[in-house]
Design brief:
Elements lengths: L1 H31 L6 H18 L4 H24 L7 H21 L18 E6 L4 E5 H23 L1 H11 L1 H6 L4 H27 L9 H11 L4 H21 L4 H16 L14
Antiparallel strand pairs: 1-2
Helix pairs in contact: 1-5, 1-8, 1-9, 1-10, 2-3, 2-4, 2-8, 3-8, 5-6, 5-8, 6-8, 9-10, 9-11, 10-11
Length: about 300
């Protein structure tokens, strides 16, 4: 039983990373109806920015992490204004292909930046990778590392901040109104295009936070953005328009991967997320927290 709980704890930490990346998927889709397949690359850029500030420039971990998040928020805002806004109103397929192209270009650009390249890097953190004992028996013990605990705690903090932002601020309420009905929000005087840019900024900031949290575990390289392919099933599982669903979906995928890696034959861990995705699409296409919608044409 302790072994099972240990696997759940380990899966919860990586599941929190999936949840943060999936949250970026959901925020952008809910407001703009665009599926951003470059979300993983935004996480990768955030991790590289943190590496630059902490390792190359010598800032502390906290200042570097905050600077990376703020820098990626500015990057996300400009990305929408410069790249995405000119093609606003085009078919959804065109927008999807554009975000896929942004992902490929981002990986190539990251490999050409001096000091980054294609090597793998690490950043120093104040959190230890050694296990902290939670429960010990004669046969085994239940432990969790400071790194994993920091990931879980930071995810809870980010979710609480986002909840307060969307619930209690005028801008957050305007974003909710825009996500529910863009035309009605426009008629009510809400600057819809500016709201879109702010949504991209928040999504990029959340992705940067995920990259900073993930960096000590998997290292930083140009291919770390492919974790977005694991976060996408998490967003679908929770319901693509549901913010709580993104959190639950990310945790579920992380725990399933952890359990599959231990109890199932080798190789199932890498495909567990996609098996879940296929099962959800067949059994409940709207996801756990999503709602089935109909459109008259």
């Amino acid at each position: 039983m302790l072994q099972f709980v240990q696997l759940v704890l380990n899966g919860s930490s990586i599941g929190c990373i999936y949840a943060l990346v999936a949250l970026g998927f959901v925020l952008i889709y809910k407001a703009t109806e665009v599926v951003n397949f470059a979300q993983g690359e935004l996480m990768m850029f955030g991790a590289f920015f943190a590496y630059t500030l902490i390792t190359l420039f010598g800032f502390s971990y906290w200042i570097g992490a905050a600077g990376a998040i703020l820098g990626m928020m500015a990057f996300g805002y400009l990305l929408d204004r410069v790249v995405l806004r000119p093609v606003l109103g085009q078919p959804a397929f065109a927008m999807i292909m554009l975000t896929i192209g942004i992902g490929y270009v981002s990986r190539s650009v990251a490999g050409l930046v001096p000091g980054w390249g294609t090597a793998a890097y690490a950043i120093d953190t104040p959190f230890s990778a050694e296990g902290l004992p939670l429960l010990t028996t004669a046969e085994t013990s239940l432990v969790i590392s400071e790194q994993n605990l920091s990931i879980i705690g930071a995810t809870v903090l980010f979710c609480a901040v986002l909840f307060a932002f969307f619930r209690y601020t005028r801008i957050g309420v305007a974003m909710q109104a825009t996500s529910q009905n863009q035309l009605a929000a426009y008629y009510m005087g809400i600057p819809v295009k500016s709201v879109f840019s702010l949504i991209w900024a928040i999504s990029a900031g959340v992705a940067a936070a995920a990259g900073v949290l993930l960096a000590p575990i998997t290292l930083i390289d140009t291919n770390m953005g492919f974790i977005g392919l694991k976060a996408f099933p998490a967003a679908v599982l929770g319901g693509f328009g549901s913010i709580p669903g993104a959190i639950v979906g990310g945790l579920t995928i992380g725990i399933i991967e952890s359990l599959a890696g231990f109890y199932l034959p080798q190789g199932f861990k890498d495909i567990a997320a996609y098996i879940v995705l296929l099962a959800v699409l067949v059994l409940r296409p709207e996801g756990l927290f999503g709602q089935a919608t109909r459109k008259k044409v």
